[in-house]
Every structure is written in structure tokens, then in C-alpha cells.
Known about the structure:
The complex is a heterodimer.
Chain A: E1 2-9, E2 12-19, H1 24-31, E3 50-53, E4 56-59, E5 72-74, H2 87-95, H3 104-117, H4 123-129, H5 140-156
Parallel strand pairs in A: 1-5
Antiparallel strand pairs in A: 1-2, 3-4, 3-5
Helix pairs in contact in A: 2-5
Chain B: H1 4-7, H2 22-28, E1 31-36, E2 57-62, E3 68-72, H3 81-93, E4 100-104, H4 121-148, E5 155-158, E6 161-164, E7 167-173, H5 174-178, E8 182-186, H6 211-216, E9 231-235, E10 243-249, H7 251-255, E11 260-264, E12 267-272, H8 275-283, E13 286-291, H9 307-313, E14 319-324, H10 327-333, E15 336-344, E16 356-362, E17 365-370, H11 375-386, E18 393-396, H12 411-423, E19 427-430, H13 433-438, E20 446-454, E21 460-468, E22 483-489, H14 505-522, H15 527-533, H16 540-552, E23 565-572, E24 575-585, E25 592-602, H17 609-628, E26 634-635, E27 639-640, E28 658-663, H18 684-696, E29 702-703, H19 707-711
Parallel strand pairs in B: 1-8, 3-4, 9-19, 15-29, 17-18, 21-22, 25-28
Antiparallel strand pairs in B: 1-2, 2-3, 5-6, 6-7, 9-12, 10-13, 11-12, 14-22, 15-20, 16-17, 16-19, 20-21, 23-24, 24-25, 26-27
Helix pairs in contact in B: 3-4, 11-12, 14-18, 17-18
Amino acid sequence: xxxxxHFTLNGKPVTVNTEGSRxxxxxxxxxxxxxxxxxxxxxGLCGACTVLVDGRAQxxxxxxxxxxxxxxxxxIEGLSxxxxxxxxxxxxxxxxxxxxxxxxxxxxxxxxxxxxxxxNPTEEQIRTALEGNLCRCSAxxxxxxxxxxxxxxxxxx
Amino acid sequence: MRYEEYLEEEFRDPNVSxxxxxxxxxxxxxxxxxxxxxxxxxxxxGRRSEGEVSDWNAFLRIGEDGRITVFSGKVxxxxxxxxxxAQVVAEELDVPIQQIEMVMADxxxxxYDAGTFGSRTIRFHAPLLREAAxxxxxxxxxxxxxxxxxxxxxxxxxxxxxxVAKDPKRVLTFAELARGQRIERRLQPRPQPKTIDRYxxxxxxxxxxxxxxxxxxxxxxxxDIRLPGMLYGCVLRPKNHYFRLVRADTSEAxxxxxxxxxxxxxxxxxxxxxxxxxAEALAKVKAEWEPDPERHPPVADVDDxxxxxxxxxTAGEARTxxxxxxxxxxxxxxxxxxxxxxxxxxxxxxxxxxHTATVQIEGEKVTVWAxxxxxxxxxxxxARELGVPAQNVRVIAPYVGxxxxxxxxxxxxIEAARLAKATGRPVQVAWSREEEIFNDTFRPAAVVKIxxxxxxxxxxxxxxxxVYNAGDRGAPQFYDIPHHRTRSTSGRSPLAxxxxxxPANNSNTFAREQxxxxxxxxxxxxxxxxxxxHLAPDAPARRVLEAAAKRFGYRPAVAPxxxxxxxxxxxxxxxxxxxxxxxxxxxxxxxxxxxxxxxAQDMGLCINPEGARMQIEGxxxxxxxxxxxxxxxxxxxxxxxxxxxxxxxxARFSDLPKIETVIVDPKPADGIAHGGGEPAIICMxxxxxxxxxxxxxxxxxxxxxxxxxxxx
Lengths: 157, 712
């Protein structure tokens, strides 16, 4: 059933008219032209499609577009402001926490969610929070370092 | 392409020439162009030919704005060559790396390249770029010398400028020198690249230049291409590659708004303006399949348990690929003989980005954006599919979300091309995860049989090695063994196979390093000392093993020591690696936790140390997957049962051990760089197996070493 869905996308109000059951991932990538959010498995198992909904990491490949009505959605494109990288993005760049880059948007957003709830996470907490984000290039070692560094920077400022 | 076609190191594609001529290329912009023709140049030591190429290859342009554009047919897959190749060029030209622009993996703009795989880029491609850059530097100096009427020896190059050495106020920038020039220079037989003692950029950890685009989501992958009128296509698949289509009822799919259906015999696809709509429509197609009598011979009547017997039974005559001494003598000299068999399952690639391609046909011109490791191969394949001359097809590999050998195959591009032709619209085909596994060319299931023996002094005197299906790479052993033979053969594989990260070497190293360990134990020697006793004083394996042992803080103990410490050594792409791992085994659950791993790598000249470490770390962690979890399960009849990450688990954050990497001798005198993207993965099965044995005294002969197997 075609529905009209209003929500906030990267800080701006947006309206889509589409089948309410369509998954947010495809509405973002197609109807809304934001290709930073990636398809990796379509089953919520790899985390490549992660976005923030009201600040919480969600798998957009499983989320019907109707369920974000009235909510705030943040994609990777909405993370940097005024051309300045978010501290987590900056930390990923500096630590070399990526290789092919395909899982990176999902990783970054999962980390942003974690740090908003645990500003001083242990390594164990980082690994647990990101357990649902898969990286085949297996940059895990540096991703953990990047998240720790980002946390430290964010606590300072 | 069949796996066997990838087995040889010297991968060769057919010799083809392409439409764009030298004149057209130069006409695009002025400046200085360095051309390279392989036939002009004698092979330099340490560099081998990449195969037959077309009549010219332009590698470098120095533009009239002073910018240096490097044209390379290689693909950035995540391995970091986007920056390391730029480093090599910037070093020779003494130019800030920011002045280098990389144009990669575009068949219209880049010279022919066979493909990005096999850890070949730094070994074979970088030296060509280095020489082209040295040639360009020579041209610039010569131009300046002519302008100033001075001998070239009076000049020097610094930061993108040519200066008079004794009067550095006299300066000409690259831009000034290139302006108004239309020079094409063939690479001279003996260019004079820098000696490594003068390196200021190569050997330093220049940061990745694609990182910002990737962390912001701006980096474009093949599935991010958007074209007016584009349709997304989903192809109807059987459950089994051995089946053929009986009939497909597409009536329900056709009823959906905006859906188009293409039916060409066995090839049925649905298309829509949104990929999820196309997928929904595909689910509505009712299809009947039946075993294809032409493709359903007994080779398909094998499952994941009976595969090993099957491979051995159907194997052809074995080829001897290495030998020495006399096996009969070795058998006589041995006081203990060990005969073991090692097995490993098929393994999938599982890049996070599935195979994806976007194809646009505009009149005579075809443009393909493909997630591929072989853009030029893709060009040929698409041209063949469409029945057009190859020069009409342009393939661009944008950023690729991981390859690992699996994206040498371009089936998705062929499908997209076929659909673009059928619909008259641009078409994007992006495989689902299920299709990605289903269509994969797996790392082969393999068997290795080793018969070896030690004499009364605990020296290895006999080594008789036979590998089925894995491949030759890494099969010959490198220890000091007087009587040895290495043979290789293949049985008929029911599943499609292809190159996986470090092809063949994971399987061969798993077998060899466990057999070595087994003998060490029987000889009552610790695994490090035992190996060192069988390595010459200047053996490269010795260096990495000693470095790893030192970093680990290894204290010798005969296995099984109960400590859970394992050792493994190997070589791939001329690089040597030694791993020492510490594991913890839960006897009750069978779960293995790798707590710590030290890897020492000797890769020759290390161009970018941080980049190299990133690749090692990636190899180590990715290797945990095939060591502990990954294996294709399949039923008799060829049906693969793994469908997504839940049924095909790969390494995750919770698997991450403490990792330490040592790069041994990164600035060797010969200045030659060896492979970096693959070697560190080869020891992972072996080192964990040896560590498990050290922990619980039980040896694992079968990959993956799952909890079920360990509990048994």
C-alpha cells in the first residue's frame, strides 16, 4: 500500500510516497539518492546497511520505511558537518581502519551509536557493540583502535 | 574460466589491440607522455614479463599544469595500491605525492592489464611505473638543460621543480617545462631509477588517499552508479548449477507495475526501477527445473563428506613438481615414518560487496561499471556477449568492495549487458548475498597426503608429498630434506572453483606445517628449534622464524606443552612469513579462541609499512575464518546449502586476537619488493592447528576446525 511518510533525514525534513513495506535501505539508495548506505546481505547479518534511527544503530535492510515515520534518520552522508569529518570518521582515517571501504559506513555509524551511550568504552564493549558489523578485509584490529581514539578525542572536547 | 587457467603464475590474456591510438591519446591534452613497449625493454633482474600487450602502453603524463597523471590498469580493491603506486612514481620524480593523480582500471584510458590478483601489482607492475617515472624525470631534466644551455649533470630535481644545483634560484617547474610540449618518449632500455639509499617517500607510511571518500560514503562502487532510465535486473536462478529450466511462469511478475520481464530460453530476468521491486517480482516467478542430462553425470553425485574420496578416486596422473635424492634411500634411513592425510573443505570468497555491474549501451558505445578484478577481461567478455568489437566497450572498475580472487569472474557484467541489450535501457545487476555464494568459484576442496620420516638423530630424511586439487602454489617444501618428492594432481570437482586469497597455499601450508610439527614432537624437539635445524643459515625462512620467536618471547617446549602455542612458516609471492599463535581450547564446547598471534614477514622492499601491516592484519584475521568456521556444505546433486552469513560464518570482532606484526628487513640491498596482499594468510590454518595440538594433544586434520570436530 502506497503511503506518505514524513521523517527527518540528516537533519532535514523529507517526504516519500511509496509502499510502506519497502525497506529503508532501498528508499535511501534509490528514491532519495543516498548511496553511502550499502547492501551486504539483506538479512541483517552483516551491518553494511547500518543507519541511525533516533540515534540508535538499525539495519536498514530490515526496516520498513513506514517504521521511520516521524523519526530522525542519519546516514553516513549526514555525519560530517560543514565539510568537517565527525571524530569517528577522522579516527578511522588516521588509524587506517578501512581497506576496501564497503563496510565502513555501517561500521562508523555503529561506532557513533556506541559512543553516544558509552563515551568511555572498554575494548570488550567496542567488540560487542560492533559484533554485528562484518568486515571481510578484516580491518577489525584497527577499527577497535580507531573507536578507542575517537572516544578519547570526543571526551576531551 | 576454469580454475586451472589461473594456476600459472604467468597469467596471460589474449593479445589484443585497442582502438585508441597514440595520436588520439596525445590529442586529448598536451604535455609529456611516457610510453612503454615491453618489447623495447630487456627484462631487468627481478622483474618478469606480464605477458603480451598491445602495441603501446602509456603510463605517465606530465600535464601542462604540472600535474602527473599515472595511468594504471590495476584495480584498488582495498589493498592500498592507490597510494603505494603513487609513492613509487612520486619518489622517482621527486614530486610531492599530492601532485600525482591516479587514473586506474579504466579500459579506455589505461594501458592493458591482465588483472589485479596474485600479489603481482607491487612485484611486476610497480617496477614498470618506476621506470616510466625515471624516464619522465630524465625528459624534464633534459628540457630544462636545453632551456638553460647547461649540461643535465648540472641540474637537480626537488619537489616538482628542476633547479640548477649550484644556483637553486634558477628554477623551472614541471608545469613550465611541460607547457606547449607534445613529447612522447619511449621507455629507454636502461632507465636510471633511484637507488634505495636515496628514497625519501618509498618506505614511509603515506596515508591512504581514498580514506576520506570511504568514511564519508562518497566513494563510488559499481552499485552506486545512477543513470537516467536505469533498470535493476534480477536473474532467475536454479537451486543447483546442474539443473536446467523446464518452464517459467512469469505472469504474476508481469502484473506488477513498472516490472519488465526478459525471457531468452534459460535466461529469465525481471527488471524494475528499484532493486527491491525487481527482487519482489522475481519471487513471483514460478519456475520448474530439472537435472540437465548433459551436465548431470556422476560427478555431481557427491556431498561434502564424500568429496575427498571422490577427488582421490577421480584424480588424474600426478605430476612431479619438485624432487631430490632418492625416496627409497630416505625410507631406509628413516627410523620413524609418518603417513598422514589432510583435508580441507571448499571455501567461499564472501566479499562484503557482492558482484555488481552497471551497463549502458549508447549507439555503438558500451560502458560498463563493474566490481571486477579484471576490467580488460570483462571488456572482452561483454564485447563477446553483445557481438560487438571490443574497442566499443569501455569498462571502468570504480572502488571495489573486496575481491580476494573471486571477482576475476565477470558473470554479473555479462548478465547486465545482456539485459541492457534486451531492454534498450541501462541496467544494473547487483547480486544478492545468496547469489554471491551460489555463483562463487570456491577455493577447492583438497586432500594432501604426506609420507615422511626422521632418522635416529631426529633429522627429516624422507618427504613424499601429494596434493589433490588445491594447486601447486606452496606445495614444494623448503626445508633441508635430502630425499623428497612433491606431486600434484586433481580429481573432478563437482563445484566451480577459482583462485582464493593465496591460491593453493593455505591448503598446502596446513598440511606441510602440521607434518613438520608432528615430526618435531616425535623427535622430542620444540617446533621452532626443529624447523631451524632444517634451514640453512641464510635461509629466508630462518630469518622470519627467528624474528617471530623473538617478538613472541617464545620459550622452547616440546609439543604438546599444554600452553596452546603453535608455529608455522611459509612462503608465497616470494615473501616469507612465520606465525606464532597462542590459543585457548574449551574441551567441552570445542570452541577455539586465538588469543595472540605474532607474524613476521619478509617482503623485500616495503613500500608503505603501515599499508603492509594493514594487509598482514587483514590476512591473519580473515584466515581465522577458513581455519575455524568456513566450509561449503553441499548435498549430493550439487546443491550448496550455505546461503548467507548465518550459514557461512566469517571472522568477526569477537574472534580478534592480539596481533603483532614484524616486517623483517624492509629496505634490502637489492631494492626488490615482493608480494604483500596474500602471504600472511597461508599459515593461519596450520598455526592454529599446531596451537590446538599443543593445547590438548589432539591434531586436527580437517579444515575447518569446527567445535563439532574438536568435540568429537
